[in-house]
Amino acid sequence: MPRLRTKETLDSRNLGRHASFVSRWNSELVIAGIAVVVYLNGLSGDLVFDDLQAIKDNPDVRLSTSWKSVFTHDFWGTPLSDPTSHKSYRPLTVLSFRFNSAMHGLQPYGYHAVNIVLHALVSILFMRVCALVQVKKDVAFVAGLLFAVHPIHTEAVTGIVGRAELLSALFYSLCILVFAWGHQPVPRGVAVPILNKSSPFALTAAVCVAGLSLLSKEQGVTCLGLCCAYDIVVVCQLDLKTALHCVANSCRGKTPKWLGALMFRTVFLVAMAALLLIGRVWFVAGGSATSFTQSDNPTLFENSTLTRALTYFYLPAFSSWLLLCPAGLCHDWSMDSIPRLTAIGDSRNLATASLLVLTVLLVIYGAFHQHVHEAGPAIPKDATS
Prior knowledge:
The longest helix has 31 residues, at 7-37. This protein is 58% helix and 0% strand. It contains 13 helices and no strands. The chain is mainly α. The protein has helices at residues 7-37, 50-56, 91-104, 108-132, 137-149, 154-158, 163-182, 200-214, 223-235, 240-251, 257-285, 305-324, 349-368. The chain starts with 6 loop residues before the first helix and ends in a 17-residue tail after the last helix.
């Protein structure tokens, strides 16, 4: 016999939803407020370093220049067809500078204010992305707070040209959230993947938002790779044991429907990412590689293969250390800001090796760790084909 819903039951459920809504908005307001407060001292900053070339000396930022030139010039206002062009194609970022220019000319206050607002929005979205990976709300909130106040973001927020990173991060996070909206994780208690509903609209929208991230800064297209990882690890909760079981079944002609759907989404996202990259390369550089100067990337001009390899392998370890101990920040990491590694005996190679070992251990743990929700009945394997 069905249980009747009393008025008290409905009221308590509505109160619970209201409390959850209020709690969520309180968390977001706190994170946004803190993200704004910690960077208020940058509002009085002037145009410095790359700001001068990207804004003050860039004709595309001024309203006297046609807005169409934004899409045929690089980030610094040089025509893409010019051999000296840097090929940094970020039209959405330049358009945002034009907005500031239309509002208050070259007064830096407004440029800094927009950067701070964008940082607050990105901090909120980062908290929401953390909540997607099934961590507790308190953990996601603390992660959002750490993101908002982390000193590593000083260059992106206080430096006006850092808006490229902020806009790219905004669309980057939105891409993941849009994809996640249309691809929900499996029900609670499921020990193996099952066929989940996939939204074609969310899949297409995620690709479009990734394109906006790419038009803000080049690395934005990598968000489609994170969508693939989210689909495999969170949505389908696929571990190595289940993957091997599926491969064995596929060899016998018994490919599960959910695996076919996952493969389609993965191939689609990878293909779209490749098309976006190819389109950008051919439109911006005409299919040719960008010519960097020695001051941009001195390691590239090193004759020693060993030096190039050791230095490039060290950079991820160096960046990881900055996340843990941001004591030596820099507004520009070009030129000789990071001394090159020229020998195996360089002590910094220990940092590279440590990061490599830690990464391998995490991959092994993730590959063999079966992702099962805390509550709910498990579904047998024969129900997933």
